[in-house]
Design a protein that fits this description.
A 6-stranded antiparallel β-barrel has the order 1-2-3-6-5-4, surrounded by 4 helices. The protein is globular, with a radius of gyration of 19 Å. It is an alpha+beta fold. Helix 4 (182-195) runs antiparallel to helix 5. The chain has helices at residues 12-21, 122-137, 150-156, 182-195, 202-212; strands at 24-29, 38-48, 59-65, 79-91, 104-119, 160-175.
Length: 213
């Protein structure tokens, strides 16, 4: 992903928060010299982040269905791309109050390049799936207690293959109308709220970046 200097994340806090709050990632790996890349949508969580100034060096965890053949194409140490998409939305020129003009799309996204390790054993997969549930339940208003369901997890965990992702590169774009004056940004926010959160609460994100600017 190309990083536009005008649309960098306000700080690492926003980058890490996007990954934590929008963990349904796209795991992309090479399909071979004569094949298109392979991609799977799956939750990917942060397991360890030794340095809060960047996700480089962080350890992430994920899993996919064993029936999904993508895992068979992966070898330990192979680089893969993890794509995290945050709130986004269309921006109509009606918010600009001048002509001529053109529409655009406001969005936030984080791309992490990581070296993968395949964790193809039950104990490792139990750790990955229970940690994933723990992280996702933390985003819920009331967290579910999984303790009574661990036996069920043990029974079906063989149906997934798990991974550790060691991050080696971070890229982020937070394109949120930073190039527009405050009154235009306010109209973009109002328009986003008026149409509803079709693709996440981009209005609040635009406001947050505006405060940080």
């Amino acid at each position: 992903m190309h990083e536009f200097p005008a649309y960098l994340a306000p700080s690492q806090v926003e980058v890490t928060d996007l990954v934590r709050r929008h963990p349904f990632a796209l795991v992309v790996s090479g399909g071979g010299s004569d094949a298109a890349p392979i991609a799977t949508h799956t939750p990917v969580i942060i397991e360890d982040m030794p340095d809060d100034s960047t996700l480089v060096g962080a350890e992430l965890l994920g899993h996919i269905a064993r029936k999904n053949p993508q895992w068979k194409t992966l070898r330990d140490g192979q680089p893969v791309l993890l794509v995290f998409s945050g709130p986004h939305g269309y921006v109509s020129p009606t918010a600009y109050a001048d002509d001529p003009n053109v529409p655009t799309w406001d969005y936030a996204a984080v791309h992490l390049t990581a070296r993968v390790t395949v964790l193809d054993d039950r104990d490792a997969s139990m750790h990955v799936v229970t940690r994933t549930v723990q992280e996702l339940e933390a985003l819920e208003p009331t967290a579910w207690d999984a303790s009574s369901s661990l036996a069920t997890f043990e029974r079906i965990v063989g149906g997934v293959v798990s991974f550790r992702f060691d991050v080696i590169e971070q890229r982020a774009v937070f394109k949120l109308s930073q190039d527009k004056p405050a009154d235009v940004r306010a109209r973009v926010v109002a328009a986003a709220r008026s149409r509803g959160d079709r693709y996440g609460d981009v209005a609040s994100l635009i406001e947050s970046v505006g405060r940080d600017a």
